[in-house]
Amino acid sequence: MTDHLRRDLIDLTPRLRRFAYAISGSMDKGDDLVQTAFEKALTRLDQFQQGTRLDSWMFRIIQNCWIDETRRTRTRGVQIDPELAALSDHGKGARLAEDRMMLATVRRAMAELPEDQRAALALVAIEGLSYKEAASVLDIPVGTVMSRLSRARARLTDLVRPAAKGAA
Amino acid sequence: MDRISKETLAAFVDGELTDKEMERVAAHLETCAEDRAHVEELILSNALLARAFDAPMEEPAPDRLRAAIMGEAAPGAGDAGATVIPFARRARRWAAPAGLALAASVAAVLFLGGRDAAPTLSIAEGLLVVDGPLHAALETRPSGAAETAADGARFIPSATFADASGRHCREVEAVAPGAASARVVEALIACREDGGVWRVAAAVAEHPAHKQGEGFVPASGGDASAIAAALDALGAGMALDPDAEAALIARGWN
User: Fold this and answer.
1) Contact criterion met (CB < 8 Å) for A14 and B56
2) Residue ranges of the domains in chain B?
3) pLDDT of residue B213
4) A22 contacts B56? CB cut-off 8 A
5) Facing residues of B170 across strands?
6) For residue B217, what is the DSSP state?
7) Number of separate domains in chain A
8) Is A102 on the interface with B (CB under 8 A)?
9) Which of A109-123, B16-30, B111-125 is predicted least confidently?
10) Interface check A27 vs B, CB under 8 A
11) Which of B10, B58, B70 is opposite residue A150, by nearest beta carbon?
């Protein structure tokens, strides 16, 4: 790999970690995922096409690693400890108690979504990918991205609405 | 009043519509309270999602991930390896699609509950009044355009937003004279008061990377979170889109 590409990957790392955190439900698990994905990426650099988006390529590898991982461990969805999620935002997020609780609610709601909906939502709502880019990462049609987003958001807002009302 | 489909409203929030469709939806939202409420809810959930998982954004890449990337390559292969997290991106993440101003208040009230909290890392809060080329940059330059000082230093506004009290504030990157690239050397947030006075709300320095025995030493993660903390403390709303910002500059910030 060229040094340039490595540098780009280092620059991308915060976003890749965020995506992995969002789909796996934990920072530690997310970091394991990103590490595995980097190792995979290093072995198949010939498959990365210059001029295409490195972030999309890495999101795809991370998502595939996650699917492998969940298949291997036969987990259904994200194993997230509700107590832990409520208490910990790794000290980096909100300062106010209500704010922390709301964000914990969001993390829990995200964890309860089906795998495919969670990935679509993370790519579009958090990473800001276009529908087309998300479709290419997930290897599904744009229309499927839209319907997954729509279902994911309906569930998410149902779960978050009471908390949001409380904070307002 | 005809309702607009949820898919279209989502596409509006996600910036997937053409300009013309955006305008149509924005006009519709002016008069349709139900759809407006739905759009606000979508924007709220997007912003909450972004915040819920943003802990990694404020940290440099952990050593083990760096090591995984560097693989077998010799460490120290470059001399500018700091993970500079572009702090401006954090503000821009709140950006709403063009034409949507309604959510700014939602953002200030709901997401950034921290406006009563003391800024933890900002310095010189509210004391320094900006002058000279930095003032010119704040007052007249659109985001992304540089104002160059006589000594070659460049001041580049990177985002414009309203704070919780409705003041206009801007993030500016300062690049030292002779700096090779647009690497951020210092960054500040200033807010405009009556009479064209821009006061510094927060300022941080980003230190260049130092080469050490092995690998890189990131030095900028903390600075990025300093700016992030200052933004939260100000109750920063969403970054204005370029058109709104241009209009504001043209009107002399009124």
Assistant:
1) yes
2) 1-53, 58-250
3) 33
4) no
5) B160, B190
6) E
7) 1
8) yes
9) B111-125
10) yes
11) B10
